[in-house]
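User: two proteins, same treatment. go.

Assistant:
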Amino acid sequence: EVFPMLSEARYAELRDDIASHGQRMPITLCPDGRLLDGRNRMRACDELGVAPRTEVYGGDPYDFVVGSFDEASKKCPRVGWAQMAATLEITSRAWKMLMEKRRKVGG
């Protein structure tokens, strides 16, 4: 649970959007069925009685977390990496992988 749940207002918007337009993004699972991404979508689908659309990520779950963290940081460029990591309580392994990735690509 690296990323926080949506606020109740944002969650209500997501639930209403799924009710009106269907689930647009699949929920990502590990091969063993653990949830990697999509807790809010899963909750909304459960509440709406909608069968959730899922996909299985076959790679290392930490790679997925690092990629998600990297994408989130691009959407919040004014937030520093260290502050974001502390706020989201990212695991030290994922943090180290992210920093190594950034060093390799010159970021």
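Protein 2:
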Amino acid sequence: IFEEHMHEEWEHVELLAQRIKELGGTFVTDTNKVRANAAPWYPVESGDVKYLAQLIYDAEDRAASKYERLARLTREDDPGTYRIILQILTTEQEHRHELHKLKESLF
């Protein structure tokens, strides 16, 4: 499940990068700026699947919330971005649901 989600997350990156290019935007290449705006990272050292499932569930939950906000912001003024955001949001919600089921089976 984790590897499948990782590939789908990369597809999100590609979709968003393409849209940024279409809109004439530029990419942040300064790693300090990227780190300052990134979600917090919690290292997994124990290999505990329960901990990992919870950690990734929380990340998916945060991502879904951000995409919900982006959907509201783009719905009226940028239908192209809105469609992409809805596509990504749907996947994030699926990930969240799958991880919830995994957590229930582990706990």
